[in-house]
Fold this protein.
Amino acid sequence: MGTYSEEAALLYDKTADRLYPTITGVGEAVAAGEINEGVVPIENSLEGPVTFTLDLLIAQPTLFIRGEIDLPIEHYLLAKSGTVPAEIKVIYSHPQALGQCRQYLEKNYPQAEQMASLSTVLCVTDSFESKVPAAAISPRRASELYDVDILDRGIQDVANNVTRFAVIGLSDHAPTGDDKTSMAFTLEKDSPGLLHRVLGEFADRDINLLKIESRPTKQLLGEYIFVLDCVGHREESPMKEALASLSDPISMLRILGSYPRWKAPI
Amino acid sequence: MGTYSEEAALLYDKTADRLYPTITGVGEAVAAGEINEGVVPIENSLEGPVTFTLDLLIAQPTLFIRGEIDLPIEHYLLAKSGTVPAEIKVIYSHPQALGQCRQYLEKNYPQAEQMASLSTVLCVTDSFESKVPAAAISPRRASELYDVDILDRGIQDVANNVTRFAVIGLSDHAPTGDDKTSMAFTLEKDSPGLLHRVLGEFADRDINLLKIESRPTKQLLGEYIFVLDCVGHREESPMKEALASLSDPISMLRILGSYPRWKAPI
Protein backbone atom coordinates (compact mmCIF):
# COMPACT_ATOMS: atom_id res chain seq x y z
CA MET A 1 0.00 0.00 0.00
CA GLY A 2 1.05 3.55 -0.53
CA THR A 3 3.26 3.24 -3.62
CA TYR A 4 3.16 5.55 -6.64
CA SER A 5 1.87 2.56 -8.64
CA GLU A 6 -1.14 2.42 -6.30
CA GLU A 7 -1.75 6.17 -6.75
CA ALA A 8 -1.57 5.71 -10.54
CA ALA A 9 -3.91 2.72 -10.48
CA LEU A 10 -6.48 4.67 -8.42
CA LEU A 11 -6.22 7.61 -10.81
CA TYR A 12 -7.01 5.21 -13.68
CA ASP A 13 -9.72 3.22 -11.89
CA LYS A 14 -11.13 4.25 -8.50
CA THR A 15 -12.09 0.62 -7.78
CA ALA A 16 -8.51 -0.71 -8.15
CA ASP A 17 -7.95 -2.86 -5.06
CA ARG A 18 -5.28 -5.54 -5.60
CA LEU A 19 -1.70 -4.79 -4.73
CA TYR A 20 1.37 -6.71 -5.84
CA PRO A 21 4.86 -6.26 -4.39
CA THR A 22 6.77 -6.27 -7.70
CA ILE A 23 6.43 -5.47 -11.42
CA THR A 24 6.91 -9.19 -12.14
CA GLY A 25 4.01 -9.95 -9.76
CA VAL A 26 1.66 -7.63 -11.68
CA GLY A 27 2.74 -9.18 -15.00
CA GLU A 28 2.16 -12.72 -13.73
CA ALA A 29 -1.29 -11.85 -12.29
CA VAL A 30 -2.38 -10.37 -15.64
CA ALA A 31 -0.91 -13.30 -17.63
CA ALA A 32 -2.70 -15.80 -15.34
CA GLY A 33 -6.04 -13.97 -15.70
CA GLU A 34 -6.25 -13.14 -11.96
CA ILE A 35 -6.80 -9.50 -12.90
CA ASN A 36 -7.98 -7.94 -16.18
CA GLU A 37 -5.68 -4.93 -16.00
CA GLY A 38 -2.47 -4.16 -14.16
CA VAL A 39 -0.51 -0.92 -13.73
CA VAL A 40 3.30 -0.83 -13.98
CA PRO A 41 5.76 2.09 -14.24
CA ILE A 42 7.31 2.40 -17.70
CA GLU A 43 9.13 5.75 -17.87
CA ASN A 44 10.18 8.67 -15.70
CA SER A 45 10.89 12.23 -16.87
CA LEU A 46 14.21 12.31 -14.96
CA GLU A 47 15.55 8.76 -14.91
CA GLY A 48 14.32 7.57 -18.30
CA PRO A 49 12.83 4.18 -19.10
CA VAL A 50 12.01 1.62 -16.44
CA THR A 51 14.08 -1.00 -18.25
CA PHE A 52 12.76 -3.87 -16.14
CA THR A 53 9.20 -3.20 -17.42
CA LEU A 54 10.36 -2.82 -21.04
CA ASP A 55 12.25 -6.14 -20.87
CA LEU A 56 9.20 -7.85 -19.29
CA LEU A 57 6.86 -6.63 -22.06
CA ILE A 58 9.34 -7.62 -24.79
CA ALA A 59 9.74 -11.11 -23.29
CA GLN A 60 6.04 -11.83 -22.52
CA PRO A 61 4.13 -12.14 -25.83
CA THR A 62 0.73 -12.52 -24.08
CA LEU A 63 0.93 -9.09 -22.42
CA PHE A 64 -0.18 -5.90 -24.17
CA ILE A 65 -0.25 -2.23 -23.27
CA ARG A 66 -3.88 -1.02 -23.26
CA GLY A 67 -3.56 2.35 -21.57
CA GLU A 68 -1.19 4.88 -19.98
CA ILE A 69 -1.25 7.16 -16.93
CA ASP A 70 1.02 10.15 -16.28
CA LEU A 71 1.47 10.75 -12.55
CA PRO A 72 3.32 13.78 -11.11
CA ILE A 73 5.76 12.52 -8.48
CA GLU A 74 6.37 14.32 -5.19
CA HIS A 75 8.87 12.66 -2.86
CA TYR A 76 8.54 12.99 0.92
CA LEU A 77 11.32 12.43 3.43
CA LEU A 78 9.82 10.38 6.28
CA ALA A 79 11.30 9.06 9.53
CA LYS A 80 10.13 7.20 12.60
CA SER A 81 8.35 9.59 14.94
CA GLY A 82 10.91 11.50 17.03
CA THR A 83 13.92 11.01 14.73
CA VAL A 84 16.42 13.92 14.83
CA PRO A 85 17.28 14.90 11.21
CA ALA A 86 20.92 15.79 11.99
CA GLU A 87 21.50 12.28 13.39
CA ILE A 88 20.26 10.40 10.33
CA LYS A 89 22.88 7.89 9.16
CA VAL A 90 20.96 5.92 6.52
CA ILE A 91 18.33 6.86 3.95
CA TYR A 92 16.32 4.06 2.35
CA SER A 93 14.32 4.11 -0.87
CA HIS A 94 13.87 2.48 -4.24
CA PRO A 95 17.03 3.20 -6.31
CA GLN A 96 15.03 5.26 -8.84
CA ALA A 97 13.70 7.53 -6.05
CA LEU A 98 17.21 7.86 -4.55
CA GLY A 99 18.42 8.86 -8.04
CA GLN A 100 15.71 11.50 -8.31
CA CYS A 101 16.81 13.12 -5.02
CA ARG A 102 20.58 12.85 -5.62
CA GLN A 103 21.42 16.58 -5.29
CA TYR A 104 19.05 17.12 -2.35
CA LEU A 105 20.63 14.22 -0.45
CA GLU A 106 24.22 15.30 -1.23
CA LYS A 107 23.43 18.82 0.00
CA ASN A 108 21.26 18.08 3.03
CA TYR A 109 22.35 14.61 4.16
CA PRO A 110 25.97 14.22 2.97
CA GLN A 111 26.73 12.03 6.01
CA ALA A 112 23.88 9.60 5.33
CA GLU A 113 24.47 6.35 3.49
CA GLN A 114 21.97 5.63 0.72
CA MET A 115 20.46 2.16 0.85
CA ALA A 116 18.26 0.50 -1.74
CA SER A 117 14.81 -0.86 -0.86
CA LEU A 118 12.46 -2.87 -3.06
CA SER A 119 9.77 -0.16 -3.17
CA THR A 120 9.07 3.42 -2.05
CA VAL A 121 6.93 1.98 0.77
CA LEU A 122 8.99 -1.00 1.94
CA CYS A 123 11.73 1.58 2.57
CA VAL A 124 9.62 2.93 5.46
CA THR A 125 9.72 -0.43 7.27
CA ASP A 126 13.40 -0.81 6.29
CA SER A 127 14.07 2.52 8.03
CA PHE A 128 12.09 1.36 11.11
CA GLU A 129 14.29 -1.75 11.36
CA SER A 130 17.55 0.18 11.08
CA LYS A 131 19.89 0.03 14.09
CA VAL A 132 21.00 3.63 13.42
CA PRO A 133 18.79 6.73 12.88
CA ALA A 134 17.23 6.36 9.43
CA ALA A 135 14.82 8.00 7.01
CA ALA A 136 12.88 6.93 3.91
CA ILE A 137 11.89 8.59 0.62
CA SER A 138 8.24 7.81 -0.06
CA PRO A 139 5.00 9.16 -1.54
CA ARG A 140 2.70 11.32 0.59
CA ARG A 141 0.32 8.38 0.99
CA ALA A 142 2.89 6.44 3.04
CA SER A 143 2.86 9.21 5.66
CA GLU A 144 -0.81 8.43 6.34
CA LEU A 145 -0.25 4.69 6.69
CA TYR A 146 2.66 4.73 9.13
CA ASP A 147 3.54 6.52 12.37
CA VAL A 148 6.15 8.83 10.85
CA ASP A 149 7.28 12.44 10.96
CA ILE A 150 7.35 14.31 7.64
CA LEU A 151 10.90 15.77 7.64
CA ASP A 152 10.58 17.39 4.21
CA ARG A 153 8.50 17.25 1.01
CA GLY A 154 9.05 17.91 -2.68
CA ILE A 155 12.68 16.82 -2.26
CA GLN A 156 13.15 15.67 -5.87
CA ASP A 157 15.94 17.55 -7.70
CA VAL A 158 13.76 18.66 -10.60
CA ALA A 159 10.28 20.03 -9.96
CA ASN A 160 8.85 18.54 -13.14
CA ASN A 161 9.00 14.89 -12.15
CA VAL A 162 6.37 12.75 -13.88
CA THR A 163 6.20 8.97 -14.07
CA ARG A 164 4.34 7.30 -16.91
CA PHE A 165 2.60 4.03 -16.05
CA ALA A 166 1.41 1.44 -18.55
CA VAL A 167 -1.90 -0.33 -18.11
CA ILE A 168 -1.28 -3.92 -19.20
CA GLY A 169 -3.75 -6.68 -20.13
CA LEU A 170 -4.20 -9.69 -22.39
CA SER A 171 -5.30 -7.45 -25.30
CA ASP A 172 -4.73 -3.87 -26.31
CA HIS A 173 -7.36 -1.10 -26.72
CA ALA A 174 -9.87 -0.43 -29.51
CA PRO A 175 -9.32 2.79 -31.51
CA THR A 176 -10.52 6.01 -29.85
CA GLY A 177 -9.31 8.62 -32.35
CA ASP A 178 -6.37 9.79 -30.18
CA ASP A 179 -4.14 6.76 -29.81
CA LYS A 180 -0.53 5.69 -29.82
CA THR A 181 1.17 2.42 -30.65
CA SER A 182 4.18 0.88 -28.90
CA MET A 183 6.30 -1.71 -30.69
CA ALA A 184 9.59 -3.58 -30.28
CA PHE A 185 11.74 -4.88 -33.14
CA THR A 186 15.17 -6.13 -34.08
CA LEU A 187 16.92 -5.44 -37.38
CA GLU A 188 18.02 -8.25 -39.68
CA LYS A 189 21.66 -7.32 -39.70
CA ASP A 190 23.90 -4.53 -38.62
CA SER A 191 24.31 -2.58 -41.85
CA PRO A 192 24.29 1.18 -42.52
CA GLY A 193 20.87 2.75 -42.84
CA LEU A 194 18.54 -0.07 -41.70
CA LEU A 195 17.11 1.87 -38.75
CA HIS A 196 16.87 4.91 -41.01
CA ARG A 197 14.78 2.88 -43.49
CA VAL A 198 12.41 1.69 -40.73
CA LEU A 199 11.92 5.22 -39.39
CA GLY A 200 11.33 6.32 -42.99
CA GLU A 201 8.19 4.15 -43.18
CA PHE A 202 6.76 6.32 -40.39
CA ALA A 203 8.24 9.66 -41.48
CA ASP A 204 7.04 9.25 -45.08
CA ARG A 205 3.49 8.85 -43.72
CA ASP A 206 3.78 11.86 -41.37
CA ILE A 207 3.53 9.57 -38.35
CA ASN A 208 5.07 11.29 -35.33
CA LEU A 209 7.71 9.29 -33.47
CA LEU A 210 7.20 9.93 -29.74
CA LYS A 211 9.97 7.79 -28.30
CA ILE A 212 12.80 5.49 -29.32
CA GLU A 213 14.67 3.30 -26.87
CA SER A 214 17.19 0.55 -27.44
CA ARG A 215 17.41 -2.46 -25.16
CA PRO A 216 20.17 -5.07 -25.33
CA THR A 217 19.25 -8.40 -26.97
CA LYS A 218 21.24 -9.97 -24.09
CA GLN A 219 23.09 -12.04 -26.68
CA LEU A 220 25.87 -9.84 -27.99
CA LEU A 221 27.18 -6.47 -26.83
CA GLY A 222 26.06 -3.95 -29.46
CA GLU A 223 22.95 -5.88 -30.61
CA TYR A 224 19.71 -4.10 -29.77
CA ILE A 225 15.95 -4.42 -29.62
CA PHE A 226 14.43 -1.06 -30.55
CA VAL A 227 11.29 0.10 -28.74
CA LEU A 228 9.24 2.75 -30.54
CA ASP A 229 6.17 4.78 -29.55
CA CYS A 230 4.34 6.43 -32.48
CA VAL A 231 1.10 8.40 -32.84
CA GLY A 232 -1.80 6.35 -34.27
CA HIS A 233 -3.61 3.03 -33.84
CA ARG A 234 -2.38 -0.19 -35.44
CA GLU A 235 -5.84 -0.86 -36.97
CA GLU A 236 -6.08 2.59 -38.61
CA SER A 237 -4.37 4.40 -41.47
CA PRO A 238 -1.61 5.44 -41.83
CA MET A 239 -0.16 3.33 -38.96
CA LYS A 240 -1.67 0.15 -40.40
CA GLU A 241 0.18 0.62 -43.70
CA ALA A 242 3.43 1.64 -41.99
CA LEU A 243 3.43 -1.55 -39.90
CA ALA A 244 2.62 -3.70 -42.95
CA SER A 245 5.63 -2.22 -44.77
CA LEU A 246 8.14 -3.14 -42.08
CA SER A 247 8.63 -6.86 -42.84
CA ASP A 248 11.69 -6.41 -45.05
CA PRO A 249 14.53 -5.06 -42.86
CA ILE A 250 13.01 -6.35 -39.61
CA SER A 251 13.70 -9.81 -38.19
CA MET A 252 11.35 -9.61 -35.17
CA LEU A 253 8.40 -7.27 -34.66
CA ARG A 254 6.18 -7.32 -31.60
CA ILE A 255 3.35 -4.82 -31.36
CA LEU A 256 3.22 -4.06 -27.64
CA GLY A 257 -0.19 -2.44 -28.10
CA SER A 258 -2.30 0.47 -29.36
CA TYR A 259 -4.04 2.52 -26.68
CA PRO A 260 -5.52 5.97 -25.95
CA ARG A 261 -3.06 8.75 -25.10
CA TRP A 262 -3.29 9.90 -21.49
CA LYS A 263 -5.55 12.83 -20.68
CA ALA A 264 -5.28 14.15 -17.13
CA PRO A 265 -8.61 14.16 -15.25
CA ILE A 266 -10.08 17.69 -15.04
CA MET B 1 40.20 -2.34 -5.06
CA GLY B 2 38.89 -5.36 -6.88
CA THR B 3 36.08 -3.84 -8.97
CA TYR B 4 35.42 -4.58 -12.63
CA SER B 5 36.39 -0.95 -13.36
CA GLU B 6 39.83 -1.68 -11.88
CA GLU B 7 40.15 -4.82 -14.04
CA ALA B 8 39.19 -2.78 -17.12
CA ALA B 9 41.64 0.01 -16.25
CA LEU B 10 44.50 -2.50 -15.84
CA LEU B 11 43.59 -4.13 -19.16
CA TYR B 12 43.86 -0.68 -20.80
CA ASP B 13 46.99 0.48 -18.94
CA LYS B 14 49.03 -1.84 -16.72
CA THR B 15 50.29 1.16 -14.73
CA ALA B 16 46.79 2.33 -13.70
CA ASP B 17 47.00 2.90 -9.95
CA ARG B 18 44.40 5.40 -8.70
CA LEU B 19 41.04 4.15 -7.49
CA TYR B 20 37.89 6.23 -7.00
CA PRO B 21 34.79 5.00 -5.17
CA THR B 22 32.21 6.37 -7.66
CA ILE B 23 31.73 7.27 -11.33
CA THR B 24 31.29 10.91 -10.25
CA GLY B 25 34.65 10.70 -8.46
CA VAL B 26 36.43 9.57 -11.64
CA GLY B 27 34.74 12.35 -13.65
CA GLU B 28 35.76 15.01 -11.11
CA ALA B 29 39.37 13.76 -10.97
CA VAL B 30 39.66 13.95 -14.78
CA ALA B 31 37.95 17.38 -14.95
CA ALA B 32 40.30 18.72 -12.24
CA GLY B 33 43.39 17.42 -14.05
CA GLU B 34 44.34 15.06 -11.19
CA ILE B 35 44.51 12.22 -13.70
CA ASN B 36 44.90 12.27 -17.50
CA GLU B 37 42.55 9.40 -18.17
CA GLY B 38 39.76 7.71 -16.19
CA VAL B 39 37.80 4.53 -16.81
CA VAL B 40 34.01 4.36 -16.26
CA PRO B 41 31.42 1.71 -17.23
CA ILE B 42 29.15 2.86 -20.07
CA GLU B 43 27.18 -0.18 -21.29
CA ASN B 44 26.50 -3.82 -20.42
CA SER B 45 25.40 -6.52 -22.85
CA LEU B 46 22.54 -7.59 -20.51
CA GLU B 47 21.40 -4.51 -18.64
CA GLY B 48 21.93 -1.89 -21.35
CA PRO B 49 23.38 1.59 -20.89
CA VAL B 50 24.88 2.79 -17.62
CA THR B 51 22.60 5.83 -17.63
CA PHE B 52 24.49 7.57 -14.83
CA THR B 53 27.63 7.69 -17.00
CA LEU B 54 25.73 8.86 -20.09
CA ASP B 55 24.09 11.67 -18.10
CA LEU B 56 27.47 12.68 -16.62
CA LEU B 57 29.10 12.90 -20.07
CA ILE B 58 26.15 14.85 -21.51
CA ALA B 59 26.25 17.32 -18.60
CA GLN B 60 30.05 17.81 -18.41
CA PRO B 61 31.22 19.63 -21.57
CA THR B 62 34.93 19.38 -20.61
CA LEU B 63 34.92 15.56 -20.57
CA PHE B 64 35.49 13.51 -23.73
CA ILE B 65 35.58 9.82 -24.54
CA ARG B 66 39.06 8.89 -25.82
CA GLY B 67 38.93 5.11 -25.72
CA GLU B 68 36.86 2.04 -24.94
CA ILE B 69 37.46 -1.32 -23.28
CA ASP B 70 35.22 -4.41 -23.51
CA LEU B 71 35.56 -6.59 -20.42
CA PRO B 72 33.94 -10.05 -20.10
CA ILE B 73 32.17 -10.18 -16.74
CA GLU B 74 32.19 -13.28 -14.52
CA HIS B 75 30.33 -12.96 -11.24
CA TYR B 76 31.47 -14.91 -8.18
CA LEU B 77 29.32 -15.65 -5.14
CA LEU B 78 31.48 -15.01 -2.07
CA ALA B 79 30.80 -15.32 1.65
CA LYS B 80 32.68 -14.94 4.90
CA SER B 81 34.83 -18.01 5.50
CA GLY B 82 32.69 -20.79 7.02
CA THR B 83 29.26 -19.50 5.90
CA VAL B 84 26.72 -22.30 5.22
CA PRO B 85 25.06 -21.63 1.82
CA ALA B 86 21.64 -22.98 2.90
CA GLU B 87 21.52 -20.47 5.76
CA ILE B 88 22.17 -17.36 3.67
CA LYS B 89 19.48 -14.75 4.30
CA VAL B 90 20.86 -11.72 2.47
CA ILE B 91 22.83 -11.28 -0.75
CA TYR B 92 24.57 -7.97 -1.35
CA SER B 93 25.82 -6.48 -4.60
CA HIS B 94 25.61 -3.51 -6.92
CA PRO B 95 22.04 -3.41 -8.36
CA GLN B 96 23.36 -4.04 -11.89
CA ALA B 97 25.15 -7.22 -10.75
CA LEU B 98 22.03 -8.37 -8.86
CA GLY B 99 20.03 -7.81 -12.07
CA GLN B 100 22.52 -9.90 -14.05
CA CYS B 101 22.10 -12.86 -11.66
CA ARG B 102 18.29 -12.58 -11.25
CA GLN B 103 17.39 -16.11 -12.42
CA TYR B 104 20.29 -17.75 -10.61
CA LEU B 105 19.29 -16.06 -7.34
CA GLU B 106 15.58 -16.91 -7.73
CA LYS B 107 16.45 -20.56 -8.37
CA ASN B 108 19.26 -21.11 -5.87
CA TYR B 109 18.61 -18.55 -3.13
CA PRO B 110 14.83 -17.85 -3.21
CA GLN B 111 14.83 -17.28 0.57
CA ALA B 112 17.57 -14.64 0.44
CA GLU B 113 16.78 -10.94 0.40
CA GLN B 114 18.65 -8.96 -2.25
CA MET B 115 20.30 -5.81 -0.93
CA ALA B 116 21.97 -3.08 -2.93
CA SER B 117 25.57 -2.04 -2.30
CA LEU B 118 27.49 0.85 -3.83
CA SER B 119 29.96 -1.40 -5.69
CA THR B 120 30.73 -5.05 -6.42
CA VAL B 121 33.48 -4.88 -3.81
CA LEU B 122 31.86 -2.84 -1.04
CA CYS B 123 29.20 -5.57 -1.04
CA VAL B 124 31.82 -7.94 0.44
CA THR B 125 32.27 -5.73 3.51
CA ASP B 126 28.48 -5.15 3.61
CA SER B 127 28.06 -8.93 3.82
CA PHE B 128 30.71 -9.14 6.59
CA GLU B 129 28.76 -6.58 8.64
CA SER B 130 25.42 -8.38 8.24
CA LYS B 131 23.79 -9.71 11.44
CA VAL B 132 22.41 -12.71 9.51
CA PRO B 133 24.31 -15.11 7.21
CA ALA B 134 25.11 -13.17 4.03
CA ALA B 135 26.86 -13.44 0.67
CA ALA B 136 28.13 -11.02 -1.97
CA ILE B 137 28.31 -11.01 -5.78
CA SER B 138 31.77 -9.81 -6.81
CA PRO B 139 34.56 -10.18 -9.38
CA ARG B 140 37.15 -12.93 -8.95
CA ARG B 141 39.69 -10.35 -7.82
CA ALA B 142 37.73 -9.65 -4.62
CA SER B 143 38.19 -13.28 -3.57
CA GLU B 144 41.94 -12.67 -3.42
CA LEU B 145 41.65 -9.52 -1.35
CA TYR B 146 39.33 -10.77 1.38
CA ASP B 147 39.11 -13.86 3.59
CA VAL B 148 36.13 -15.42 1.81
CA ASP B 149 34.88 -18.77 0.55
CA ILE B 150 34.01 -18.99 -3.15
CA LEU B 151 30.48 -20.49 -3.05
CA ASP B 152 29.98 -20.41 -6.82
CA ARG B 153 31.33 -18.76 -9.98
CA GLY B 154 29.96 -17.76 -13.38
CA ILE B 155 26.55 -17.17 -11.75
CA GLN B 156 25.38 -14.57 -14.30
CA ASP B 157 22.16 -15.64 -16.11
CA VAL B 158 23.62 -15.21 -19.59
CA ALA B 159 27.09 -16.54 -20.35
CA ASN B 160 27.87 -13.73 -22.78
CA ASN B 161 28.10 -10.88 -20.28
CA VAL B 162 30.39 -8.07 -21.41
CA THR B 163 30.70 -4.58 -19.98
CA ARG B 164 32.00 -1.75 -22.13
CA PHE B 165 34.04 0.90 -20.33
CA ALA B 166 34.79 4.38 -21.64
CA VAL B 167 38.20 5.97 -21.19
CA ILE B 168 37.52 9.64 -20.47
CA GLY B 169 39.85 12.64 -20.62
CA LEU B 170 39.98 16.35 -21.40
CA SER B 171 40.32 15.66 -25.14
CA ASP B 172 39.38 12.82 -27.47
CA HIS B 173 41.73 10.66 -29.57
CA ALA B 174 43.55 11.37 -32.85
CA PRO B 175 42.44 9.31 -35.88
CA THR B 176 43.80 5.75 -36.07
CA GLY B 177 41.97 4.41 -39.12
CA ASP B 178 39.50 2.28 -37.12
CA ASP B 179 37.54 4.73 -34.98
CA LYS B 180 34.07 5.51 -33.78
CA THR B 181 32.39 8.73 -32.73
CA SER B 182 29.90 9.21 -29.89
CA MET B 183 27.57 12.21 -29.90
CA ALA B 184 24.53 13.56 -28.04
CA PHE B 185 21.89 15.87 -29.53
CA THR B 186 18.39 17.23 -29.09
CA LEU B 187 15.96 17.95 -31.91
CA GLU B 188 14.54 21.41 -32.46
CA LYS B 189 10.92 20.42 -32.14
CA ASP B 190 8.83 17.32 -31.92
CA SER B 191 7.67 16.90 -35.50
CA PRO B 192 7.37 13.82 -37.71
CA GLY B 193 10.56 12.72 -39.40
CA LEU B 194 13.21 14.88 -37.67
CA LEU B 195 15.13 11.94 -36.22
CA HIS B 196 14.74 10.17 -39.56
CA ARG B 197 16.35 13.18 -41.29
CA VAL B 198 19.30 13.18 -38.87
CA LEU B 199 19.90 9.45 -39.31
CA GLY B 200 19.66 10.02 -43.08
CA GLU B 201 22.78 12.21 -42.98
CA PHE B 202 24.68 9.15 -41.77
CA ALA B 203 22.83 6.51 -43.84
CA ASP B 204 23.27 8.51 -47.06
CA ARG B 205 27.03 8.46 -46.47
CA ASP B 206 27.09 4.71 -45.64
CA ILE B 207 28.10 5.48 -42.05
CA ASN B 208 27.17 2.56 -39.82
CA LEU B 209 25.09 3.44 -36.77
CA LEU B 210 26.34 1.28 -33.89
CA LYS B 211 24.02 2.45 -31.11
CA ILE B 212 21.16 4.83 -30.42
CA GLU B 213 19.97 5.66 -26.93
CA SER B 214 17.52 8.26 -25.70
CA ARG B 215 17.96 9.97 -22.35
CA PRO B 216 15.36 12.26 -20.79
CA THR B 217 16.07 16.03 -21.00
CA LYS B 218 14.83 16.11 -17.35
CA GLN B 219 12.57 18.97 -18.32
CA LEU B 220 9.45 17.43 -19.84
CA LEU B 221 8.25 13.82 -20.00
CA GLY B 222 8.66 12.75 -23.63
CA GLU B 223 11.55 15.14 -24.47
CA TYR B 224 14.80 13.34 -25.20
CA ILE B 225 18.53 13.73 -25.73
CA PHE B 226 19.64 11.18 -28.32
CA VAL B 227 23.02 9.50 -27.90
CA LEU B 228 24.53 7.98 -31.06
CA ASP B 229 27.61 5.89 -31.72
CA CYS B 230 28.71 5.75 -35.38
CA VAL B 231 31.70 4.30 -37.23
CA GLY B 232 34.33 6.91 -38.22
CA HIS B 233 36.37 9.79 -36.81
CA ARG B 234 34.99 13.34 -36.56
CA GLU B 235 38.05 14.76 -38.36
CA GLU B 236 37.78 12.38 -41.33
CA SER B 237 35.43 11.88 -44.27
CA PRO B 238 32.60 10.96 -44.43
CA MET B 239 31.88 11.55 -40.70
CA LYS B 240 33.22 15.11 -40.92
CA GLU B 241 30.68 16.03 -43.62
CA ALA B 242 27.82 14.21 -41.87
CA LEU B 243 28.42 16.18 -38.66
CA ALA B 244 28.66 19.47 -40.59
CA SER B 245 25.27 18.79 -42.18
CA LEU B 246 23.42 18.32 -38.89
CA SER B 247 22.97 21.96 -37.87
CA ASP B 248 19.50 22.36 -39.35
CA PRO B 249 17.11 20.08 -37.37
CA ILE B 250 19.35 19.91 -34.29
CA SER B 251 19.14 22.39 -31.42
CA MET B 252 22.06 21.02 -29.35
CA LEU B 253 24.93 18.84 -30.53
CA ARG B 254 27.76 17.68 -28.31
CA ILE B 255 30.47 15.46 -29.76
CA LEU B 256 31.35 13.18 -26.85
CA GLY B 257 34.49 12.09 -28.68
CA SER B 258 36.13 10.12 -31.49
CA TYR B 259 38.30 7.21 -30.40
CA PRO B 260 39.73 3.86 -31.55
CA ARG B 261 37.39 0.86 -31.49
CA TRP B 262 38.32 -1.73 -28.87
CA LYS B 263 40.58 -4.58 -29.91
CA ALA B 264 41.03 -7.32 -27.33
CA PRO B 265 44.68 -7.98 -26.39
CA ILE B 266 46.00 -11.14 -28.04
Q: What stands out?
A: Chain B has three domains: 4-73+161-169, 76-153, 179-260. Chain B has a mean pLDDT of 91. The two ends of chain B are 25 Å apart (CA to CA). Residues 13 and 166 of chain B are 13 Å apart (CA to CA).
